[in-house]
Amino acid sequence: xRMADRLVILGLGFAGRAVARAAVAAGWTVAGTMRAPVAAxxxxxxxxxxxxxxxPAIRQATHLLVTAGPEALGHDPVLAAHAAAVAAAPAxxxxxxxxxxxxxxxxxGGWVDEATPPAPGQERSRRRLAAEAEWRALAARRGLAxxxxxxxxxxxxxxxxxxxxxxxxxRRVDKPGHHFARIHVEDIAAAVLAAAARPAAGARVLxxxxxxxxxxxAVVAEAARLLGAPLxxxxxxxxxxxxxxPMGASFWAENRRVASRVTQAALGLAWRYPSYREGLAAILAxxxxxxxxxxxxxxx
Length: 300
Prior knowledge:
300 residues, alpha/beta, seven-stranded parallel beta sheet
C-alpha cells in the first residue's frame, strides 16, 4: 500500500465494515457508503457517504470494493448509479466484487474450486453472475485488475451459531451428507486487503471459504459446547424444512463443498480461522473480553 491509496467501499454492511476497520488499522484512507448514518460513531477513521452522493469519492479512489448485491434484473447497483464515475476515476487500478459461491449451484456435495465453471440454479445466484459479467466488461475496457470474491456463508461476532444457541433458536438439522461452506468475516477482510495489495492482471476468481465445509448439526453442537449449553435437539430435515421460510429452504436446496487452496496461495495467506471451531472460539473469547472490560468500567 502507498500513502496515496484510497479505498472506497460501496456497501458498509457486515463484511464491508470488517474490511473498513482492517483497512483503517493498516493505514488506508477509507470511505464507504452506509444506509444508517447513526452507525457513524462505530466507524472511526472512515468517511461515510450517502450512496447517491458517492460519485466524487469514487472518482478519487485507487481501490474500489463493491459489496452491494445486484438489483432485481441482475444489474449491479453501483454501475447503474455510478458507471460514469468509475469510468472517469483516473487513479483507479483495482476493483473487488463480493459475489457468492451460489453461482456454482447444486453439486450434490461435491467440491468446487476456483476453476469450476459456474452453473447457478437459483435466480439470486444468476443475478450475481450477471453482475460479475458487468464488472468483467468494465474492467476489461479500462484495463483494471478485478477480483471476484465468491464468498461462502459469512459469520462473525453477532452473527454466528453462538447467538442462535443463546436465543434458544438453534436446531441441529439432520441431513446426512449435506455440507455448508462458511468464512469468518475477519478472514474476508484479510483476503480483500491482501488481494488489493497483490493485484493480478485482468480478472481472477477468488474463493472466500474456510478449509472445512461442515454440517449444520456439527456447528450448532460446537457452539453449545463452548457455551456450556444443553445440546439442541436433532431435527430431521423434513421436519425442519416444513418450518423454514422460502429463503431458508433455498439454502438447503444446494449442497457443495468449496475449496480455497488456490486463493490462499495466490494471496500469500492462510485463514486465521480455518474451520468453524477456531472461529466460534475466537468470537466467544472476544465477547467475554468485552464483557469483562464493561464490568470493570461499571465498577469504577
